[in-house]
């Protein structure tokens, strides 16, 4: 504790750098992944390309990317931008996959109902498809965020400043307290961000707890295997759409 | 572009393929640490996951534990254990085991927990004992999910073993750390290629294993209850 009281300004500064390096990639990654996933969903050529590509990307260790990117981008090896680009790639690798699944698992009847109600493609995407994909996207975001926060510290091995610097510095100078502070600070950041994302998902999906959308959707799917011509399912889909709309308006 | 040519030269130089600092030796060390880590993690996490999944007891604890372990930075554990226990093989292996446990544990637990209760009830109704139910019904059905967790863990371990070179151990990370120390970027790039190829190869092998052990009864997913 003594070490922390003497060094907290430095710790705070490193924590800020750490937070920046883990959050910026998540935001950029999300903005890139959603359109990519929407393009790939149901597409015979793009889907396997993106899904296999992203899982291949994920097998490449982070330390190696931190080293290779400066050679490709022409940045200094200790530049923060290398970490940001590398982690953005990982976020895309996680999110494209889960977003493709989310868009493909949307109930077709809900989409048709939206079109029938006069939704143009853009409005249907932002008003219906995106909100319905939120739960899966939040799950992917939480995984990406927590793994980013852990990976950022690896950059310290090649001299990029973050909370990981406390580990390399603590080892070099044999200060156990410094390393413990670094571990605790990293875990605290991870837990806080994870809970914030959970809350965000909770407030954005209040329609999930109205209790009407899910049963109708699954009942309809079972109908599909029987005979197609029934009106109950269509009513259910319209009901689901209505709950999406009210959820979207209040969120 | 010359850097890539230099890296290719490093990789094709016969002198780098022999001796105690040669590529085969480093590769062997890298795989050795990974296998040791995975063996310890499997012995701990699989039985625990099976027990929790089968009995349904402590599921919340396991999910919480796995989440908490996941947010621990491996580099921090690596340096902490090294300071507390001294240089050697055990501190990094311990840190890596803690990295490998969460995916294996949650894969095993959620795989078993997701087996249809109707299936388990049917097994019991046919007179199977608890262990028969677990080993003949639940594990075969959950195997793809369990192996998915193991595959995930193995890839993370292979990637992270790269940083044990930071505390004076071997493995392919040696080329990265040593190359960085003398600003020899071609050597670092060569190491990157080797680690990436190793990771891709391991992933392909594990994916194949996952396919092979999947029971034929599980392959057609269309008509499951």
From TrEMBL, chain A:
Under CDD domains, the record lists: TM_PBP2
According to the record, the residues making up region (Disordered) are 210-236
Coiled-coil intervals: none
Residues annotated as transmembrane? 20-37, 49-73, 79-100, 149-168, 175-197
**Membrane topology type, per the record?**
Multi-pass membrane protein
The biological processes this protein is annotated with in GO are: glycine betaine transport; transmembrane transport
* Main subcellular location: membrane
As for family, the record states: Belongs to the binding-protein-dependent transport system permease family.
Name by which UniProt lists this protein = ABC transporter permease
TrEMBL record, chain B:
The answer, when asked if Endoplasmic reticulum is one of the entry's keywords, is: no
The membrane spanning regions, by residue number, are 31-53, 60-87, 93-120, 141-168, 188-209
Q: Does the keyword Ribosomal protein apply?
A: no
UniProt entry keywords in alphabetical sequence:
Membrane, Transmembrane, Transmembrane helix, Transport
Query: Where in the cell is the protein located?
Result: Cell membrane; Membrane
Entry's Gene Ontology BP terms = glycine betaine transport; transmembrane transport
One annotated Gene Ontology cellular component of this protein: plasma membrane
Residue ranges of every copy of the ABC transmembrane type-1 domain listed in the record: 27-206
Similarity comment: family membership: Belongs to the binding-protein-dependent transport system permease family.
| Protein name listed in UniProt | ABC transporter permease subunit
Species, as recorded: Kocuria tytonis
Q: Give the classification, highest ranks.
A: Bacteria, Bacillati, Actinomycetota, Actinomycetes, Micrococcales
């Amino acid at each position: 504790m003594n070490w922390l009281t003497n060094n907290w300004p430095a710790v705070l500064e490193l924590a800020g750098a750490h937070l920046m390096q883990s959050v910026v990639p998540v935001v950029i990654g999300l903005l890139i992944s959603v359109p990519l996933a929407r393009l790939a969903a149901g597409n015979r050529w793009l889907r396997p390309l993106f899904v296999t590509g992203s899982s291949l990307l994920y097998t490449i260790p982070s330390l190696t990317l931190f080293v290779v990117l400066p050679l490709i981008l022409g940045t200094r090896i200790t530049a923060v931008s290398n970490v940001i680009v590398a982690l953005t790639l990982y976020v895309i690798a996680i999110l494209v996959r889960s977003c493709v699944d989310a868009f493909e698992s949307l109930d077709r009847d809900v989409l048709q109902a939206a079109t029938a109600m006069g939704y143009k493609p853009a409005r249907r995407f932002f008003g219906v498809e995106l909100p319905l994909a939120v739960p899966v996207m939040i799950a992917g975001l939480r995984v990406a965020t927590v793994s980013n926060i852990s990976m950022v510290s690896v950059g310290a091995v090649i001299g990029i400043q973050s909370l990981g610097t406390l580990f390399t510095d603590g080892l070099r100078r044999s200060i156990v307290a410094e390393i413990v502070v670094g571990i605790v600070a990293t875990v605290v950041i991870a837990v806080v961000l994870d809970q914030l994302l959970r809350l965000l998902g909770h407030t954005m999906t209040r329609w999930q707890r109205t209790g009407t959308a899910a049963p109708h959707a699954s009942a309809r799917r079972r109908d599909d295997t029987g005979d197609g011509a029934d009106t109950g399912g269509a009513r259910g889909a319209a009901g689901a759409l209505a709950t999406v709309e009210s959820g979207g308006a209040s969120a | 572009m010359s850097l890539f040519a230099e890296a290719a030269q490093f990789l094709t130089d016969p002198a780098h393929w022999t001796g105690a600092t040669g590529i085969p030796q480093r590769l062997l060390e890298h795989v050795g640490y990974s296998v040791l880590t995975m063996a310890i993690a499997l012995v701990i996490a699989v039985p625990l996951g099976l027990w929790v999944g089968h009995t349904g007891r402590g599921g919340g604890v396991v999910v919480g534990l796995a989440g908490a372990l996941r947010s621990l930075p491996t580099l921090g554990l690596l340096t902490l254990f090294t300071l507390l226990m001294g240089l050697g093989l055990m501190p990094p292996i311990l840190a890596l085991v803690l990295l490998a446990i969460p995916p294996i544990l949650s894969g095993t637990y959620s795989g078993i927990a997701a087996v249809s209760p109707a299936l388990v009830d049917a097994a019991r109704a046919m007179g199977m004992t608890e262990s028969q139910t677990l080993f003949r019904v639940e594990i075969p059905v959950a195997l793809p999910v369990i192996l998915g967790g193991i595959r995930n863990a193995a890839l993370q371990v292979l990637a992270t073993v790269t940083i044990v070179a930071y505390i004076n151990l071997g493995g392919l990370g040696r080329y990265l750390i040593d190359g960085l120390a003398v600003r020899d970027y071609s050597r670092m790039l060569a190491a990157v290629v080797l680690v990436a190829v190793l990771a891709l190869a391991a992933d392909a092998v594990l994916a194949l294993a996952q396919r092979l052990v999947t029971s034929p009864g599980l392959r057609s997913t269309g008509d499951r209850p």
